[in-house]
Structure to design on (341 residues):
């Protein structure tokens, strides 16, 4: 098969990333993160878009150099059209349009959430990585999304359940903020949870029908629990930080896994993957491995560098669209939410 070199561009939030694929094999994946947001306790959209403008050319240049190719060898440029921050998305979209015109190559638009799922199809240089076969289920969990998706083909996906309020990653970050942990809070909760007792404290689980999720009630329960304990002992959080992190993490993961197990029973599909930023959480990864052993699931857990926002997942999604001649038009504009194109 003729080699196709695909450039992927990801700029949906606060990471500027570029990746090069040769067909479905990853040659380079470069990410420039933005530390400026930490002092604000969250991503500042205006600062994010400015940083993307500064980073995008150096990031793409580095990706091409590490891949060992020239821009003239590219077969297509792929970009994240949404969902995400509009200002950030505009930077990647505009650059992709200009590069497409300048090199006279097609451009491909990608949905960010679909790309997280398709990251499981990125091959390493040896081409030996196991990949899911269709159909399979995927739990996509991040700061902005929590979904259970049925995947019947690369771009035939059906959302079976999703959060009706906060996403799981957002819940992690909010409880971390309540405990005055650094931003982003999820990784810090995970780290402290490893030293704590997951059964030290219990929090009520939401009763949401079907396969949908809710995390706002859990967050509120955690807040009220700490408010009452701090009245009794102002040092309560500091004294019990590890156990608090372990207990709230256990509660969030239990909610996720209960719904995922329900989806497996409902569909009869036992090939199950996880994707998105929260798929880096050690508790969730361990829970998936356990289901693999106890329930006979065939599980697919992404490599850590494919859990966060990255252009490799954009490029692989674009590669399969490229094979179908599914190209974007110069009139394409970003969208902030899925379903709002």
């Amino acid at each position: 098969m003729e080699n196709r070199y695909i450039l992927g561009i990801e700029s949906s939030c606060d990471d500027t990333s570029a990746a090069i694929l040769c067909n479905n094999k990853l040659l380079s994946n470069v990410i420039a993160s933005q530390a400026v947001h930490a002092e604000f306790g969250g991503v500042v959209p205006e600062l994010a878009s400015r940083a993307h403008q500064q980073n995008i050319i150096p990031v793409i240049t580095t990706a091409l150099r590490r891949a060992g190719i020239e821009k003239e060898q590219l077969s297509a440029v792929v970009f994240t059209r949404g969902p995400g921050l509009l200002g950030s998305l505009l930077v990647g979209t505009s650059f992709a349009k200009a590069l497409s015109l300048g090199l006279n190559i097609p451009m491909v638009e990608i949905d960010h959430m679909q790309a997280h799922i398709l990251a499981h199809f990125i091959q390493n240089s040896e081409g030996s990585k196991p990949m899911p076969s269709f159909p399979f289920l995927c739990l996509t969990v991040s700061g902005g999304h929590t979904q259970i998706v049925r995947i019947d083909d690369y771009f035939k996906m059906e959302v079976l359940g999703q959060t009706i309020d906060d996403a799981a990653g957002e819940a992690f970050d909010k409880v971390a903020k309540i405990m005055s942990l650094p931003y982003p809070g999820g990784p810090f909760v995970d780290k402290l949870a490893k030293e704590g007792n997951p059964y030290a404290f219990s929090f009520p689980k939401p009763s949401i029908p079907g396969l949908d999720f809710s995390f706002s009630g859990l967050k509120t329960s955690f807040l009220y629990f700490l408010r009452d304990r701090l009245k009794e002992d102002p040092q309560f959080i500091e004294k019990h930080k590890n156990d608090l992190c372990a207990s709230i993490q256990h509660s969030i993961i239990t909610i996720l896994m209960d719904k995922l197990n329900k989806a497996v029973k409902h569909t009869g599909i036992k090939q199950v993957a996880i994707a998105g930023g929260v798929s880096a959480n050690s508790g969730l990864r361990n829970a998936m491995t356990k289901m693999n052993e106890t329930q006979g699931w065939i599980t697919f857990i992404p490599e850590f560098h494919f859990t966060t926002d990255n252009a490799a997942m954009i490029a692989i999604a674009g590669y399969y669209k490229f094979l179908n001649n599914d190209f974007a038009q110069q009139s394409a504009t970003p969208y902030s939410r899925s379903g709002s194109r």
Remarks:
- Residues 5-128+306-323 form a domain with the Nucleotidyltransferase; domain 5 fold (CATH 3.30.420.40).
